[in-house]
């Protein structure tokens, strides 16, 4: 009988915060200022990882339909690079939240470095209990952050609560493109476990959005232009600086962060989701 996958362990917000307090420096040393996947327009694109991660931010920002004076909430802001970029490109005001104190401190410093402290602000907060009044934002963006949250339905309801009527939500999530084969299951389960993440099925999203009170607009599989190339780039960076990373973060930490195991698990997918809060509701 085929082995059944291990049941997912739901992330606990405070534990996720401590994880990122510990891993933020490691992520910055490998991914750079953006702690998310890159997006390459073509398989042979010469764009470096840093440029590709900005491209994913831009791809999502363009779907927010924002401009000067818009208020944007960045759920899971990382170290602030996406929020700073969104403000710089669009003129919007951005509020970023993270459950990690270290990320909030780093992001606040980055906004100040770019002379954007008056329009880009960060605070420690839990996306499951947003500390904002209803109808506060014109758009919500969540770059690979909902994967760390224990209840997607609850997070979506919170996003709807703080969105103004007609406001837009754009997020990315991990999903199972096809059943994970036994050969790839250990790598996927380890990746999800070590980084306190869960994944979904693509077909889960339309009812999740509808039940939260959102109009579904777009569901796109962006696995091909994002995942494998990012895992390859990360693997090369870690291999090239393994001794230094091991010294800085502990050998066991570097061993846990092993993207090479994921490069050929094509069933592991990356999903782009766009939804709208209905106008006048």
TrEMBL record:
GO terms for molecular function: S-adenosylmethionine-dependent methyltransferase activity. InterPro entries: Erg6_SMT_methyltransf, Methyltransf_11, SAM-dependent_MTases_sf. One of its GO terms (biological process) is methylation. Keywords: Methyltransferase, Transferase. CDD domains: AdoMet_MTases (cd02440). It holds the Pfam family Methyltransf_11. Residues 73-171 form the Methyltransferase type domain. This is Methyltransferase domain-containing protein. It comes from Streptomyces pacificus. The lineage of its organism: Bacteria, Bacillati, Actinomycetota, Actinomycetes, Kitasatosporales.
């Amino acid at each position: 009988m085929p082995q059944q996958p291990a049941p997912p362990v739901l992330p606990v917000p405070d534990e996720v915060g401590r994880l990122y307090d510990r891993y933020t420096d490691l992520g910055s040393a490998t991914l750079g200022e953006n702690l998310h996947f890159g997006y390459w327009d073509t398989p042979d694109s010469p764009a470096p990882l840093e440029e590709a991660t900005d491209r994913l931010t831009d791809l999502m920002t363009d779907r927010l339909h924002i401009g000067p004076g818009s208020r944007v909430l960045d759920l899971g802001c990382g170290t602030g690079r996406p929020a700073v970029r969104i403000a710089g490109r669009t003129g919007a005001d951005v509020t970023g939240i993270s459950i990690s104190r270290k990320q909030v401190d780093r992001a606040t410093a980055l906004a100040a470095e770019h002379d954007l402290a008056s329009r880009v602000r960060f605070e420690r907060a839990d996306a499951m209990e947003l500390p904002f009044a209803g109808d506060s934002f014109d758009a919500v963006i969540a770059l690979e952050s909902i994967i760390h949250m224990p209840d997607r339905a609850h997070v979506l309801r919170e996003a709807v609560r703080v969105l103004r009527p007609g406001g837009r939500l754009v997020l990315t999530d991990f999903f199972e493109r096809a059943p994970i084969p036994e050969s790839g299951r250990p790598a996927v389960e380890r990746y999800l476990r070590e980084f306190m993440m869960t994944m979904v099925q693509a077909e889960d999203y339309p009812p999740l959005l509808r039940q939260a009170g959102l109009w579904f607009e777009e569901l796109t599989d962006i696995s091909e232009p994002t995942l494998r190339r990012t895992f390859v780039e990360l693997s090369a960076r870690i291999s090239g600086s393994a001794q230094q990373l091991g010294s800085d973060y502990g050998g066991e930490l570097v061993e846990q962060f092993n993207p090479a195991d994921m490069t050929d698990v094509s069933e592991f997918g990356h999903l782009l989701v766009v939804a709208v809060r209905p106008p006048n509701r």
